[in-house]
């Protein structure tokens, strides 16, 4: 019964997309090659990661259940998405070059199907992969990373938990600014602290302390050797003391955020986080904006690399499949390298963040169009 229902759904999809037998054939070839390739690379990634971390697992007493279900089960979706565009490209190169070598491409074109029409099953398959990657990246991976990162913190040695910052200037609330010379998340102690409050662009109070420490017993900050100025028009009140407990809209984790904090956020949470960081005057906000635009631009790389792959591998050449795969790997790695390189322009302030992240897609769309024009018609 279930098999019949599955067959009915399949035929409904075929009729809806107006697919021919050759379209189904190409889609089946595309997706089967892709899932085989991604399964193999994920298996290799798991084996290499296990060989690297097995000593940590044994020494920290991690159970087999935790290793499999808390770590590797949440490890796989991240790397599947990370490798998806690359192995989409390699899959297209591999099975299309084989079709070209077996003169299947020539037969398809001689049957009256145009080269543009032949692209339809490729685009359907790549859109499917891109959508799955986007959904995984936004809905599944952030939740999986919460469990995976907690496992790493507990069982993996030398796991870097936090970013330690110096010379921090932040707005913690509208009109309220803090400064810290340095802060240690391990001891939850900061030095040379100050907080300023402005109303109508006028300073109304300023509090300075030599040291600030988070008191876990009462969940408050303790100030040591403090000095406070309260300004009311022309009147000014000065108070000082050796110690004072205070409550401000700031937590220890806000001062030394975990390196992988954004990996736990979906796009909606990341957008809110970026707005909060901008409000607080965070200087490293570009790194978070780059992460946001990468999540949006990454699925498009699957489509672009598919077009390039078809254009490169649809012609039968003397070097055979090996040469076409080599050309494909060079193009794909140059694309990935350019994606990483262009982000540095945004960090250095040479380009707007959105343009820097989307620039590889723009350039390689032009490359895809040029190669497409040279492809056999």
- Which regions contain 5 or more consecutive residues with pLDDT less than 50? none
- Largest sheet strand order: 1-2-3-4-5-6
What is the H/E string? HHHHHEEEEEEHHHHH
Strand content: 15-25%
What does the oligomeric state look like here?
A: single chain
Q: State the end-to-end CA separation.
A: 44 Å
Instruction: Work out the count of structural domains.
Output: 2
Arithmetic mean pLDDT: 82
Q: Name the structural class.
A: alpha+beta
- Radius of gyration, rounded? 28 Å
The helical percent reads 55-70%
Instruction: Assign an overall shape.
Output: elongated
Q: How many beta-strand runs?
A: 6
* Biggest sheet overview: 6 strands, antiparallel
Number of helices: 10
Descriptive key words:
10 helices; alpha+beta; 2 domains; six-stranded antiparallel beta sheet; 6 strands; 377 residues
Reconstruct the topology from this structure.
Layout (H helix, E strand, L loop, with lengths): L1 H15 L4 H40 L3 H38 L2 H7 L4 H41 L10 E8 L2 E9 L4 E11 L2 E14 L4 E13 L2 E12 L5 H4 L11 H13 L5 H29 L6 H28 L5 H22 L3
Antiparallel strand pairs: 1-2, 2-3, 3-4, 4-5, 5-6
